[in-house]
Design goal:
Layout (H helix, E strand, L loop, with lengths): L2 E8 L10 H12 L4 E9 L16 E7 L2 H7 L13 H5 L4 E13 L10 E9 L2 E2 L2 H16 L7 E7 L15 E7 L2 H8 L3 H9 L5 E2 L3 E9 L7
Length: 237
């Protein structure tokens, strides 16, 4: 899983809005039948965790992270006639017609992976952080980050995934605005309670201490708690 495609929709007018099960299922069906997809995650925002980072944006009403082993497979899915064009007319996306959309493809670095062993394992809580700005020296910044910050994340109690993504040039023709965030990272826990326990543990102070050692950058970061569903892929699409 070397590449990931992120797509998110933020309803700024009604940030606590939730999509219905049928709307989410329509998105899940499209994702699950994507040719070349190696893993598909469907996200819905968890509002209750935002109080721990009150200056952050509220999480998206709908999001996804789609993994591909090759850039060619990713770009084929996003092509003018690609499979993921079906998202444009699906019920959930129509319901969010006035929402702010963001899309980006990125390179994936995995530092911890806990594959699901049961159907229950396919539902968990992710914590996605993005850095939308720029670094004084991006090479130095990323080098420091990947050599140090994931090692501190490993100390969180109950952590099941650690991932760092960085930007790349990519071809795609879904109609929504692109972003070019310099980096995203994601950690995951069994449930929301596990995430809350982790970010209130002493490890959070260690994360802050390491954050303060980052090479110079601007633009800050944002944190989103996301109820996550790992989709069972189907090859009938």
């Amino acid at each position: 899983m070397r590449f990931a495609y992120f797509l998110s929709f933020f309803d700024r007018e009604d940030p606590t809005r939730e999509l219905g099960a049928a709307e989410l299922e329509g998105v899940a069906d499209i994702i699950a039948t994507t040719p070349g997809l190696s893993r598909g995650l469907l996200f819905a925002g968890v509002q209750e965790v935002a109080k721990y980072y009150p200056n952050d944006d509220t999480p998206p009403q709908l999001g996804m992270e789609l993994y591909f082993d090759t850039i060619e497979a990713l770009e084929a899915a996003l092509a003018r006639d690609g499979h993921l064009q079906a998202l444009v007319g699906c019920e959930a996306v129509r319901a969010l017609a006035g929402a702010e959309a963001q899309q980006q493809a990125m390179v994936v670095r995995r530092f911890k992976d806990t594959p699901p062993r049961s159907a229950e394992d396919r539902s968990f809580c992710s914590y996605l952080v993005h850095y939308p700005g720029t670094a004084e020296d991006l090479n130095e910044w990323l080098d420091y980050y990947v050599r140090n910050h994931p090692q501190v994340m490993q100390l969180f109690p109950g952590i099941r995934e650690i991932e760092v993504c960085s930007r790349l040039d990519w071809c795609g023709f879904l109609p929504w605005p692109r972003v070019n965030y310099m980096q995203r990272n994601k950690i995951a826990f069994a449930d929301v309670a596990g995430l809350v326990a982790a970010i209130n543990s002493p490890v959070r102070a260690e994360m802050t201490a390491d954050f303060n050692k980052f090479p110079p950058f601007e633009g800050g970061n944002c944190h989103y708690a996301l109820q996550t569903r790992e989709l069972e892929l189907r090859r009938d699409g």
